Amino acid sequence: MRNILIYLIEILFNIGLVLNVIILMPQAYKIYRFKDAKSVSLISVVGINFIQLMTALHGIIQKDWALTLGMAASLIISTIVTVGILLYGDKAFKARVL
User: Fold this and answer.
1) How wide is the angle at C-alpha 97 spanned by C-alphas 93 and 98, nearest 5°?
2) Which of 36, 37, 75, 92 is the most buried (most CB within 10 A)?
């Protein structure tokens, strides 16, 4: 029974890694399609980027390549969203930073 539970958790974990990438794709698409990111929180996405980076690094340390690859893929998508926010977000923010 314990082995079945471990196997199930590993399957769900890997599905979660794939979903983690897929979840941010529509946001990235919407930002670049409409050139608008006013409704997206920069602080939230930067926080997500940090968590994904630390998790990917943890995967490297633990030699967990599924975790590392999944987080690296998510980090790429969320970095695209971050750049979109900086380019197309609130004009007041852009004027202060860029």
Assistant:
1) 110
2) 37
Helices 65-88 and 2-34 pack at an angle, to 10 degrees, of 20
- Please say whether the dihedral angle defined by the alpha carbons of residues 54, 44, 46 and 84, taken in this order, is positive or negative: positive
Mean pLDDT in runs of 10 for the chain (98 residues)? 91 92 92 91 94 96 95 95 90 62
Question: pLDDT value at position 47?
Answer: 95
| Token pair listed for 91 | 């004009």
CA 38, CA 1: separation in Å to the nearest integer?
49
| Per-residue pLDDT at 3 | 92
Please give the angle made by the CA atoms of 54, 59 and 60, to the nearest 5 degrees: 100
